[in-house]
Write a structure and sequence with these properties.
Shape: globular
Largest sheet: 7 strands, mixed
Radius of gyration: 17 Å
CATH class of the largest domain: Alpha Beta
Number of helices: 5
Protein name: Bifunctional ligase/repressor BirA
EC number: 6.3.4.15
Helix content: 25-40%
Family: Belongs to the biotin--protein ligase family.
CATH topology of the largest domain: BirA Bifunctional Protein, domain 2
Number of domains: 2
Order of helices and strands: EHEEHEEEEHHHEEEEE
Distance between the termini: 38 Å
Enzyme class: ligase
Catalytic activity: biotin + L-lysyl-[protein] + ATP = N(6)-biotinyl-L-lysyl-[protein] + AMP + diphosphate + H(+)
Structural class: alpha+beta
Bound molecules: biotin
CATH superfamily of the largest domain: Bira Bifunctional Protein, Domain 2
Strand content: 25-35%
Strand order of the largest sheet: 1-2-3-7-6-5-4
Length: about 250
Amino acid sequence: MGRHIHFEEEVTSTQKIAHNLASEGAEEGTIVVSEQQSSGRGRLSRVWYSPKHTGIWMSLILRPQIPLSQTPQLTLLAAVAIVQAIEEVTTLKPDIKWPNDILVNGKKLVGILTELQAEADRVHSVIIGMGINVNHDQDHFPTDLQDIATSIAIEAGEKADRAELIQQILLKFEVLYNLYLSKGFKPIKLLWESYAISLNKTVVARTLHGSLTGKAIGINEDGVLLLETESGNIEKIYSADIEVKS
Ligand code: BTN
């Protein structure tokens, strides 16, 4: 991972550049990193706040030979790699909220955006975008993010070395990805579950089609969240914002 690095001072979105590179045939493990994004993209068409010099804004190109339905597994794998890297470089012990939020003290530290390029029903490439708030001060965040976002510097009380963190993320990712390719999703699922805060809790899942409340009883083999509703039905949640209730 990271043998080919495209470093840019400013881009619209590292995702956009990574998509272009992937279309042009960039090798698996190629990364795009930028100091700043003018149109950072979040999930569900949101904007991702990406100020200069204080975060990690990075996209990683993968070319796994897996069916499209299994690509959510890679988001969960990326979340585990980032948590392990943060634990290695800082004193923090982050939690993962399904599918892809990494939180410390209930506030969001990291967002992951997985996007696909497909050929028929096969994966052409997967672009994993990682946004990590590293050295922002609290008053650095726009007002609408003040109460819900945080950074490593705020939580750990000291700044972290972004280059070291990137290096650790790529190292951890590579180990987990090789494990995944050789042994499948099971070992990754176990690791992910050990960091997950939403499991066995009552959660509200807000999807594009409305809200659903239930107990998050686990994830299935594709990385999809399983929600047991009051009526006892098990619903599969493919994409949603999750609020953990109790
Ligand atoms: C989320 O909404 O939680 C996902 C946020 C993902 C942000 C990262 S920053 C690097 C990459 N480039 C983007 O435009 N988005 C992702």
